[in-house]
Amino acid sequence: MSMFDLTGKVAIITGSTKGIGKAIAQQLAVHGAKVVISSRKQDACDAVAEEINQTHGAGTALGIAANISSKEQLEDMFARTREALGPVDILVCNAASNPYYGSMDGIEDDAFRKVLDNNILSNHWLMQLALPDMRARNDGAIIVVSSIGGLRGSATIGAYNVSKAADFQLVRNYAVENGQYGVRVNAIAPGLVRTDFARALWDNPAALAATEARLPMRRIGVPDDIAGAAVYLASPAARWITGQALVVDGGATI
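Predicted structure:
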């Protein structure tokens, strides 16, 4: 049996109707998991779930809309997942917000709170919801999609970087508390990836060329570059890894 086999596992992936989240859901399904596709809009969730079901068979994917800013909607998502597919074995906290570009001393309080609530508090809620069943089975994998922004400062996305640095500590604390129950909690720290979410950072051809010239691998990432790391951290291959931040950035931070 492959060390990357996820047959029989149930995974929730937030923000999974496009970009990195969708790629992670698709690759988890490739490796045998049943996946819950979640974002704010039910029709978008259903479309991606149907796409996966057509490829991997009916019942592989289920679309459940939920806004990460609503604890009640997240609770409902877990309840519906448990009813339809069973307890959650893999949780991928991918959804996030970045409503502001510019100096931190110019961000409005409401925008800053949105970043902190959606990028930190919602992940805390999601982990709280996943952990009881994982502890009961003495097995589980939680993955937070953070960012290399959490490792350094920025003149344009400072608030986002603050939230992503906090995610690293959220992962470490939950890993300390839950390792004894066989639950692993890790983060992925992507560099710049070609997604709609990060479009403002790569859509300018001159700026993109300058960025790629500085990267050791001479290109920015694509969603599947991050999906492979998620499959690894979710799988038995990573069974002795917890509390870590796996940097996937084409060499940007070196």
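Summary: The longest helix spans residues 109-137.
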